[in-house]
Amino acid sequence: MPIQYYIALASCLFCIGVVGVLTRRNAIIIFMCIELMLNAVNLLLVAFSKMSFGAHPGASEIAAGTDAQLFVFFIMVVAAAEVSVGLAIIVMMYRNIHSVDINFLNRLKN
Amino acid sequence: MNSIVSLVPLFPLLGFLINGLFRKSLSKTAAGIIGSGAVLLSFIISVYLFSDIKGNEGYIVNLFDFINVASFKISFAFQVDQLSVLFLLIITGIGFLIHVYSTAYMKEEVPADFARYFAYLNLFVFSMLLLVLGANYVIMFIGWEGVGLCSYLLIGYWFSNTDYNYAAKKAFIMNRIGDLGFLLAIFWILGKLGTATYSEVFDLRNTLSETDITAITLLLFVGACGKSAQIPLYTWLPDAMAGPTPVSALIHAATMVTAGVYMIARSNVLYAMSEVSSDVVAVVGLATAILAGTIALYQNDIKKVLAYSTVSQLGFMFLALGVGAYTTGVFHVMTHAFFKALMFLGAGSVIHAMGGEQDITKMGGLYKKLPKTTWTFVIGVLAISGFPFTSGFISKDEILISVFEKSQVLYWFAVFAAVLTAAYMFRLMWLVFFGGFRGTHEQEHHLHESPAAMTIPLIILAILALVGGFVQLPEAFGGKEYFNEFLSPVVPAMSHEGSSVATTEYYMLTGTVIGLAVIYFLTRKKFAVSMFEGVYTGVKKFLADKWYIDELYDAFIVNPLNAFAGFLKSVVERSGIDGLVNGVGRFVNYSSRQVRLLQSGQVGSYILFMVLSITVFFLVFWNQDNIAHFLTNIF
Asked: How far, in Å, CA of B103 to CA of B453, rounded?
């Protein structure tokens, strides 16, 4: 498959993520949209990695293009950690204001 | 040995410093002794210099470099020659007498003010000495400004009186106008010749074009007009009478106002080269003499009469300078210093006796109570009116003869001015000293002769006014012109054609005697009276109101300037400058208030801005070449 398809798909996912973050008020949905953007980038990384694999014969394996795939794993791990922190914040928020609507978060006090 | 001259201005400077710095702790006696003593020491050295310089070449004493930039050098140097030494004698001699007189005249002041007065007076003497001693125009200018400052300080000596402060300011500002002319002349000289030293300027005078010479001399004359109260800058001098009377005698009669005459006499070689400037000087001088003379005829304030008389006599001096009789002009400075200082001090004595009253309509018959003041004052009147063989006769006679040789028209005008002089002086004399007393009983009871510290200077000055002219007695009367001879190394005398002079002198003598006799009887009948209203109508009122020159200046210069200043203040300053500055502040204030709304606390809006910014950033990043290209095309 040509690389353009992957780029188009990743762009679409990213834009959906951006628009979701901008338009939605539910903190959990916004959180999911952020994950969507993150994964759009992951997708791109994998796609470019696949594209350039074997483009430079004789080079070492890492230089040959597998490094990006390794990055993706790291990102997923970090994302998982981030999700746990983020969800914890949302839980705390719900406990305090009994809502997950971010428009109720326009005050830092109270 | 030559540097002894620097002691002359040093003593008054020290006197000024001591009296000025310790004025709160000095007693009146101490302040008076320091003030007078400093000037006396200067006078003694001046006398030594005088005996030393007689018949010798003048010399320059270099003290230090005042300005030294590349090839441009102005040194702080003193010029010692016949002209400057003569002025030293006048300044320190008469200055000393007036200092002594002041110790008695000012004794009612509190000690701190008394010391302040003497400090100013010494500073004045210092500045005046600097003015006449300077070996170049720049040093002269320093002294010139110094005397202007002291004049301001002393006119406004009683500074709690607002009117006196206005008079002081008026004097200062009108002097500034003249000073500007003087300053421009100095710049012109420096620009063309690169030096301001007299001897060098005079040596190089032939390299100057005719325009340059005329411009320089005319600008110098503007300076002289300001300092020496000539038309159109004379109106400050009568107002300057607000100062203490000894100050009027020293500054506004004997010394400072003659600085302009000194300057022109010093620059005589330049004036001799410019016909136009000399004519301007002569005509302005004569016009001033007549104008001031007519005003003096109808003034009722004793000091105002003397002030206008001073303006008028200064006009005579400039007339003499203008027709090329430089030594005669300087000679009249000297004789005028004698008799005008005498009359001012006499007036001071009268005011003292009258308890501060200056209105001559309230005086009269004072000769009974103030004999010494009266007879010395009468001598002054005779001298200034030109009574034969007094100092005033000899100097004025010589001016008239010099004018006669130059132009008959000017001569008759000058004779008219001389007649005016005699008329207003006799009027003053009759009104003040003779007839019946017109003041209150209290004043009559208070009348007393002044103390010796005041009458002795009067007597010395009276003797000088009587016989001081004999140093220049014309040959026609068996004298010898020692004065011209003395000044000849610096200032060339005007040569008279020998044969006709003697006859003219006798005609003048006869004319003067007849004229004075007529004036004597006319004024005596009119003014030696017990009742004198001093209220005038018609032409007399016009003259008594000083030709409305002050009102004219107010209408055409002062008020428009005030209006313009008001416009600048309210429109340019308030709305323009302030508006601009406040506007910047208001704009920042307003825009901050608007921009503040961006920080709404809405997380969504923050993210939107973030996304938009990132988008813009990437667009710019990808298109930076195009943008750079676009920008270079624009600029």
From this structure: 7
